[in-house]
């Protein structure tokens, strides 16, 4: 493949199909990665294969493994299939966290299909998630780089810390924006960051390039989650692939809410406290919450914050020479905020 | 410490305090291990520390880390504190599985105290378990041995497979003994085996000694679980530190039940199907089940099976020269079956 040496001819419009374009540049790698994911989920225990097949069949964007593959190729990696196997690890870690998240959040939809806990029960996804997590580490050990293992172990611990912190901030409107961002850095950005950084590691690039890709992934991940939190109040269910208003019903305190709460009248604040802290909700409450978010431009302001992280992510790529893959990674960052209609 | 070079003066009576004796031979190591466990559970997220402190305060026998320490010292390890850190890893992996098991089984007691899910909720132990699992891998990466990582990652995947297989066999009286033993090998014996094997690895002993310790741990783990399954129908709750009859209420198909079912009359089999497969139980059913187990000597026969694994575990130690630690490990195997009154 010649993608990483093609000179930049960057379309500033950053098309909405940025992800498709990036995946297209990495088509062979993505196919190899999908095969690795399927073949390495094997277990003599049939139920593990069934759960894994369900969640893999649901697809998803495969954004995280795509970051590993893109970063490795942009860094000139051409030494074998390490990037493919590590991209599969990254997806396994992500899948394990999804299985556990859906149990914790009692979600019924995932990637537009019934969630594993909706189809099986709560027990199965807890244990299959543990298997996928362990299998991810087995794959990393096979790869044999302690540096890669350190990056992805640290990310895994940080993810779990972010998830626990999210539990603590749930139903708590005194949560500060900084603490909210700590949750986001943990539950989402840590894996984006590690996924991108690992690409530089397999390509044996200098630490400065590792750090640049780690920063890119980190800021991309934050932007991605901010927009996800906005979409929970703004998207079509069909587009989102999960239920609109999930965060609201679960009493999650996200940036749109923090903005509307900070700017709200005393009556509005009493509303937020009732629905998110006390958890007393009626059918009219979600539409009313959306009106309040609109009144305070909370969705737009959340996306503006996300745009700041997108610019920062894109700036981190500047140490790399221009290439089609660098452009595609730049566009993927822009795409993140274009998901809001 | 001179324990590993002291000539054998083996008390064949295998005192009931075999665990205390083993821990006594390793007192400094066990104290260092306890310190490592406490210090490495640290997290800026306070709730993680609270859950960890709760489960650590409950104590437990620390049998698995003890195996790592004993194996390392018996193999002559004197090169530093690697065995201590890896023993802490083993305990972290074990603790993570306990937290998840108690959610899956809806247990209310653990180590004689309220379980984490009883005190907090179901969400917290799922996420804190994930953190402990990730933290265990971080500690292993710090240790820096890919061989150790491979052993403990494989064990972790095998544990999860065993737990999933246990879900599949639950409520299913057509489960074969072989399949039941697969569950036991996964959920319990894999970590015992890995814990002991790692001791030989840090001492840089030949593969034959690694294998011998892996076999010892494997068979000890099977014996331990068989006896645990017997105790679920036979012990005092105070002695067991968990609720008697848990397996029965959860419809777990264990060896005592398989023995009584195989030898039972048609009426007895109908009873087992109603209480374990249909899950329709009254207060009189547990005492009746215990009578049936007594009638078919199912507890005694389970312990006899366990005794076979104990002998096999002890035989695996024969390649090591006699020493106080080898004797203590031999006695610990005997102790396993002496837990049944």
Distinctive features:
homodimer, 341 residues, mainly alpha, Farnesyl Diphosphate Synthase, two-stranded antiparallel ribbon, 73% helix, metal-binding (chains A, B), all-trans-octaprenyl-diphosphate synthase activity (chains A, B), metal ion binding (chains A, B), magnesium (chains A, B), Octaprenyl diphosphate synthase (chains A, B)
Q: What does this 3D model show about the protein?
A:
Two copies of one chain form a homodimer. Chain A has 341 residues and is mainly alpha-helical. Chain A has a domain of 228 residues: Orthogonal Bundle (Farnesyl Diphosphate Synthase). Helices cover 73% and strands 1% of the residues of chain A. Chain A contains 17 helices and two strands. Chain A has a two-stranded antiparallel sheet. In chain A, helix 9 packs across helix 10. Chain A is globular and about 60 Å long. The N terminus of chain A is likely disordered. Chains A and B meet through helix 3, helix 5, helix 7 and helix 8 of A and helix 3, helix 5, helix 7 and helix 8 of B.
CATH homology group of the domain at 16-222 and 318-338 in chain A: Farnesyl Diphosphate Synthase
Structural class of chain A: mainly alpha
Order the strands across the largest sheet of chain A as they lie in space: 1-2
CATH class of the domain at 16-222 and 318-338 in chain A: Mainly Alpha
- Identify the CATH architecture of the domain at 16-222 and 318-338 in chain A: Orthogonal Bundle
């Amino acid at each position: 493949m010649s993608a990483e040496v093609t000179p930049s001819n960057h379309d500033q419009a950053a098309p909405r199909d940025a992800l498709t374009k990036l995946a297209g540049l990495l088509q062979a790698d993505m196919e190899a990665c999908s095969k690795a994911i399927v073949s390495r989920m094997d277990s003599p225990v049939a139920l593990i294969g069934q759960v894994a097949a369900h969640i893999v069949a649901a697809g998803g964007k495969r954004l995280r493994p795509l970051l590993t593959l893109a970063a490795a190729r942009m860094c000139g990696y051409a030494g074998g299939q390490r990037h493919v196997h590590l991209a599969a690890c990254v997806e396994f870690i992500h899948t394990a966290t999804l299985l556990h998240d859906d149990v914790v959040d009692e979600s019924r939809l995932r990637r537009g299909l019934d969630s594993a806990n909706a189809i099986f029960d709560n027990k199965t996804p807890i244990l299959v998630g543990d298997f996928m997590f362990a299998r991810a580490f087995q794959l990393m050990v096979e790869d044999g780089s302690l540096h890669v293992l350190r990056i992805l172990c640290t990310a895994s611990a940080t993810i779990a810390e972010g998830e626990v912190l999210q539990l603590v901030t749930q139903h708590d409107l005194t949560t500060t924006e900084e603490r909210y961002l700590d949750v986001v850095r943990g539950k989402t950005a840590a894996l984006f960051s590690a996924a991108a950084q690992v690409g530089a590691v397999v390509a044996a690039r200098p630490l400065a390039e590792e750090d640049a890709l780690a920063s890119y992934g980190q800021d991309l991940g934050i932007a991605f989650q901010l927009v996800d939190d906005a979409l929970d109040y703004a998207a079509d269910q069909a587009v989102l692939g999960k239920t609109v208003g999930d965060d609201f019903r679960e009493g999650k305190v996200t940036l749109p809410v923090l903005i509307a709460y900070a700017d709200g009248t005393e009556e509005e604040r009493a509303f937020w406290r009732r629905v998110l802290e006390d958890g007393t909700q009626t059918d009219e409450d979600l539409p009313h919450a959306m009106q309040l978010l609109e009144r305070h431009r909370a969705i737009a302001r959340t996306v503006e914050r996300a745009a700041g992280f997108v610019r920062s992510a894109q700036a981190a790529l500047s140490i790399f020479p221009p290439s089609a893959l660098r452009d595609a990674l730049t566009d993927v960052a822009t795409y993140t905020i274009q998901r809001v209609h």
